[in-house]
Amino acid sequence: MDRKQCCVKLSVQPSRGLMDEKFIVLVQNALPGSQLTIRALHQCEDGHSWEAFGHYTADTTGTINVSEDPSIRGTYSGVEQMGLLWSLRPIPGSKPGLRMRKKNIQTPMEVTISVYQGHQTEGFADLVPLSGVVVERWYMAPGVRRIPVTEGGLTATLFLPSGPGPFPGLLDLWGGGGQLVEYRAALLASHGFASMAIDYLTSKFTMETGKMVDNQYFETAYRVLQQHPQVCGSKIAMIGLSFGTSMTLKMAIYSEVIKLSAAVCISGSHVQPVEGSVEEIMGFFQKNAGKTRFNEKNEAIWRDLLLPIPTDPSLKADVGRLQCPLLLVVGEDDQNWPAQESALDIKEMMARAGNSHLLTVLSYPNAGHLIEPPYTPHARSSTFKTVEIQEKVMCLWGGQTVEHSRAQEDAWKKILVFLRENLYGGRNPTSFSHL
Amino acid sequence: MFRAHMSVTRIWQLIEKRMMSCISVHGKLPGLQRAVGEVRRKSSFRQSPLLTATPVRALIDEQISIKGRFLSQNYPVTVCAQMHSEEGDLWEAFAHYTTNASSSINLTSDHSVGGSYVGCEPMGLFWALEPALGSREGLRLRKRNVETPYMVNISLLEGHTSPSEGQRTELAAVTTERWYMAPGVRRIEIRQNNIVGTLFLPPGPGPFPAMLDLWGMVGGLLEYRSALFASRGFASLSVAYMGHKDLPGPQHIMSVGDSYFKSAFQLLQDHCQVDADRIGVIGLSYGVVPTLRIATTIGFKPSCLICINGAVGSPLLDEDGKSKMFESDQKHWEFDDRGYVSFRNVSLPDNLPPESKRKVENITCPLMYIVGEDDLCTASTENADVIEEALRSAGKSHQFTRLSYPGAGHLIEPPYTPCSRASLWKTKPEKLFTLWGGHPAPHAAAQEDAWKRILEFMETHLRR
């Protein structure tokens, strides 16, 4: 029996973590100086396999600590504690344009992490690893309750943290692809926020009537959350990504009913017809569809649809009227929305109006559009279907994997600090320049 | 808009069972009742403080970091842990803290000033768990189903109070899961070659170093230590040798002898995912006897032995290692003023029949002996002395390691689990409670240190 085979020990701590928790991957008892490959394998819900790997050299004690030692090459290189997760990519031969998104958040993402002899780059399925472990990654902490909400015609899911409450509340909006996307709300509930993920583009109402929801839909969601006995009605925030930003700004500024304690807008813009309904805003984008460009891979670039940033005030949400802290998260390589240009214009508008103390901008070079919770793979492009365009398009989101992954990690951490300080902290609204 | 006509308890049960697909809760619901004591709900005008536990899903032997934030400054709070055993008993622990200038508490660095433990004890809420007021006597916390976790609810209460006091205000709570099995560990029932046991295999291709896991005369099949070993990369086979319905003979007698344990060891050697040259044996209490018997039998070469609070021999065994009834010889039993029995003197070396004492000097592998100095069930210190002396005389001192823990009792088990100073031994012909010994804080420290040392010992002798 090969002495090495029995001896190499691989451990990952914790073996059951939340999606945004770091882990420590440790190889021990290898031959000092030996070359080893550490590899992660995950099969997602739609059956596709994803893998990541790094090449390491065991030190003089026969140890590799992924949080301290560099990967020489692989799907990531350098000292990258979580590289085995964020650099996951579809295995060779997979369909193009895949994007990893978990639908069922009540089960964990399972990742098999293994260590192999030598520096391997392919054909892992035919190799026998020296050791392997299974790691669970969860969007939901134990005790978090998932409650479908149909009150008032809503298509939404409420996630309540464990405990008596009352908890600060959060309305969670995604973008133009519609659907009821739950994972971010589940994770935020695991951090103590009563979070409601809302489907506002493909709700039951819209699917049955063919009509888009009106502004009251969001106000209903706000009311349902506010009146919940375990929600602190005076501490509600809203978080939106992409088109969700448009809705968030609209509600934060113009709604008589919605009074937000804070707003987080990721990869979006304030450019929209100010008086417009959801349908009219979508229509405004559609009108500019001719500005779509295609790169050499025939991937659609939609960032120009809202450019140049208009000077006409009726075409921009009046951020000068905002009364709550606003955190803007921008990927400077966003090819889908002009988030960076919008952020600059928002900054100017707020400076002129005298409320820029409410604004914090996080801007990340080489990050793309899809700035999501950390340690999940970056999709530079993927197949996408908006509710307006019925056929699938290969959409360019942008971002370079390493910088995008760093941006996700940093932004998420700061989003949590921002939400905690505004919703739990009870401070006066100020900007968070220390973030 | 919201209406309900269900009791709070029922709603809570339904939520936990995930049966409620759409919740409607009356706006005036008073809050969630606990099993003991009534809890007032705070108003909706101010949000609750934030209580966190990391990692929120942990293995039993992993430390959890508990923090409370967004409280007031210099504010007295009670942190409370509650869980239900598989038998339905409520276990709880609590500790008193005061927030600092940053309005927070951190159990990893702050000191408890009262409650189930005092001082800086990051895992005190787990090892200081006790049956709630009004529980049955003589309970011991042991998990039968290792494929599910213990759910422990940690809550933050206003002021310095206790779980049994009425009118406590619950500020925040978090649910933690504590697991004996890591993801990917495989549990395999063994009923072959007359062996009654359960094998746990780590994830991965193997072959793995392995342990044969032997418990005491309370009997039955205890899987949790083996499940943890497999979660740490060792294959582990736990076998029952008495008190199990699948074993021959009456349940209160050990009807299996030496050949049984040898078969179990052999099973590991023959298993394709076990490295036959790297098998150790661990025995607790009476389990030490077969441990030493295997190690001193020709043809069996375990790589290492771990003996916890057990004797070098036994008055009960015949030549084949089968036992007479334990209660047949009670002359060395000692009773305290409650009628609880200590078996300690039964295993004093002078009281053991000489022919039952194994020739420990023939052992060829490293041996770790763990002593709880307050062990009231076995004369551990004296038996450790006998083993140490026998090995020293044979020039084998380098093979012997002793760990000795003041204040620790008989049941030195995986860490961060409660110490039972006594528990119910049997109910017929009348109730008998046996004394194990041990005081909570030193026993907890012993379990924590011993477990670490056990795993290191196994790494050294089974993997390198």
> What percent strand of chain A?
25-35%
Roughly how much helix do the residues of chain A carry, as a percent range?
Answer: 10-25%
Record the strand order, biggest sheet of chain B. Answer: 11-12-14-13-15-16-19-20
Number of domains of chain A: 2
What's the gyration radius of chain B in Å? Answer: 24 Å
**CATH topology-level fold name of the largest domain in chain A:** Rossmann fold
Q: What is the annotated CATH architecture of the largest domain in chain A?
A: 3-Layer(aba) Sandwich
Sheet with the most strands, sense and barrel status of chain A: 8 strands, mixed
**What's the mean pLDDT score of chain B?**
89
What distance separates the N and C termini of chain B? 66 Å
Number of separate strands of chain A:
21
CATH superfamily of the largest domain in chain A: Alpha/Beta hydrolase fold, catalytic domain
Helicity range of the residues of chain B?
A: 10-25%
Helix count of chain B? 7
Radius of gyration of chain A: 23 Å
CATH-derived topology of the largest domain in chain B: Rossmann fold
Stretches of chain A where pLDDT falls below 50 for ≥5 residues? none
